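Lay summary. Proteins are chains of building blocks that fold into shapes, and those shapes determine what they do. In this project we predict the shape from the chain. Here is one chain we studied, written as its sequence of building blocks.
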Amino acid sequence: MQSLLLDLVTIFALSVTAAVVCHRLRLPSAIGLLLAGVIAGPHALQLVRNAHEIELLAEIGVVLLLFVIGLEISIADLERLKRFFAIGGTVQLFGTAAVVTLLLPLTGLVPQQSVYLGFVVALSSTAIVLRLLQDRGELETPHGRSILSILIYQDIGVVPVMLTAPLLAGMAGLASKGGGGGGLADLGALLFKVLLVAAFCYSAYRWIVPWVLECITRTRSSEAFLLGVFMLCVGIAVLTQTLGLSLALGAFLAGFILSESDYSHQAVAVMLPFRDVLMSLFFISIGMLLDLKVLAGNLGPMLLLTAVVLLIKPLIAASASLAVGLPLRQAVLSGMALAQVGEFSLVATKAGVSAGLLSQEVFQSVLVVAVLSMLATPLLIQAAPKLAEQLASTPLGRWSDRRTRQGLAGTAPQEAPSVLIVGFGVTGRNLAASCRRCEVPYAVVELNSALVRNARSEGLPIYYGDASQPAILELVRAHQARAIVVVIDDPGAARRIVELARRLAPGAFILVRTRYLREVEPLTQLGADEVIADELEVSIEVFSRVLARMLVPRERIKELIGDVRGDWRRMARSLAPEATRVHDLRVVLPDLVTHSIPLREDNPWVGQTIASSRLRDDHGVMVLAVQRSGATLANPRGDVKLQAGDVLFIISPVQWDPVLS
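And here is the predicted shape, written in a compact code that computers can read:
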């Protein structure tokens, strides 16, 4: 026991070190944990002696990982991503498996082994890819949704893949003693067990689990809830194992059953710490299995195998994204992100070894390819945008461009929009609604085909296309727009759109909404006039409400808000290139702002001329234009008489409040 505890302390120390180093290097912690396992394993420094016991704990980590995955996958999620899930996931998994299956017999493997390994190689790393996308803020982008859907499909698909290992081993005559034979009898028994588990899961979903959780939550005890969740997870997992299936399948089904309950979010919250701790053991235990002698003795073949995998998987994954209608750029980003061999591939390979289908040499080969491809993943994701730009000028890029043009054919705006909105999320939808109410001509470009179809059915001027492509911006007449507003959650695409928009419309006002303050500098340097960062606006809203509760005067709060926004505006303007400064007065006159003031019947200025209203002398403001009956009089003379219904466009000092005046 003391030796095991010492090994656990060593492993956790390595885990902390790996997590800190990876955080500093902006790498996924899973990569550091894999390397830490290699260093501590029996084939390197031999820091861990109880490798078998650590492996058993790591298996529990896999069970909890599948349980949490089941918790996080709901029927509603599958419905929202059904097109990406059904088409993209099927093309990626079965397409990759088919290509690998055709190539592997060249290495001397029997067909049954090739088929199994084809599906093993098709699986990607959920832990690494989702962590990288989360760090880059790309989970809600079109390619992020495609990647998430395919990963969910893979996570579900790994279970039936593992179930086929004993069957394939029996068919190939490779089953180990007790590993299960082949034939129709075994297949029938397997199907019967699957039906039995399905019947139990339906009963648990409808009656058993809701009743158990209701009884537990009535106690209002967090300890009882935690123990109850563990009981359901382990209990259902043990049940499936007893029926000859797997612990992993039972854990996933337990999570999926709980995901439809009212307590799924709390279950995720209490299980995540245990999952993270035990998953670190899993990655380290996988690294410990890597035999450095095998790698050193077969370095050339291993690098060749890894290169082949990193070539095949992105091509097929990109094809899967193209199949669901994504443009070339998003397809390339999806393909590069799914290039690696994942952690579930190792779990499935170990299942194949246990069933007698695969040898330890094959497991070592898969392990080496998995580790090398995982290490290459951050570099591939980082290089993906540049690769997509290079492919845009190839025949493939021109074909994708034509396909997007066909989606816009006959629907491009007949009149140039005053406001071009890129993205139709919450912000884009609200801006479009405001433009309609104010009768401002606008057009929207959106990459989500479902959103486009729904909005078009409502008669909205929305068009499907990738605004990071010049042809799409030209088709929607971006060069004639007076304002271009970019409100998408893809930082890379936003930068590309700003660069293209500034080139096409040098005089347009370009505003970008982004999540992070770190995006302000690059967007401003590319030509954005205003960058609104969610982090900044949320912080302003927070301190405004807190100070208001503390009875701080409203004028003082407004002054603080002006100071915060002014600091960021001056920073952003100082970063803007010279070509984008000349059309914006705020660069040289940062203390002046513009207002539009509608004149009602009771306004004291109605009936007076601009000169007699003494707007400049008494209020320090200057009238730039007067809008009347849809027509605009720019730079009006002092003898223009103001009327009710007019809209005055004025320029004033920052401190001036049109409401108070």
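What the prediction tells us: The two ends are 79 Å apart (CA to CA).
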